[in-house]
Amino acid sequence: MNFRRKTNLEDPEINFIPLIDVLLVIIIFLVVSTTFSKFSELKINLPVAEANQNNKQEGFITIEVTKEGRYSVNEIPVESTDLNTLVSKIKVASEGKTDIPIIINADALATHQAVVNVMEASRLAGLNKITFSTKLK
Questions:
Q1: Gap between the Cα atoms of 76 and 64, Å rounded
Q2: What SS3 state is found at 120?
Q3: Global pTM?
Q4: 74-98 pLDDT per residue, tens
């Protein structure tokens, strides 16, 4: 009988190669499965209110938006909130010119959709110069 203990001269080792393989597979899975989405944004340069300007100058179209979502073009109320009606009123006010700026004067409680409707109506009317009026605090 051999009652002698075996002497192990080699130190135990940990093999890191399978661990590295598994981590690389996990990283590749995460990179491939990640969805990249691009959000569309509107670039808006907000005006700084430094002084009151007279909105009744010639060559401007002012569109007011009330908190109820009603519109008025050059202080003439628009009877309908329909987009096509607003487009026709803007075309009449612009008299066929396409370089006239539009000043949007919206109530603080007006919905974003009402303001976006004015922007869309001006685009459909062929007018692209849009600015927002502000008031001093």
A1: 9
A2: helix
A3: 0.55
A4: 888 888 888 888 888 888 888 888 8
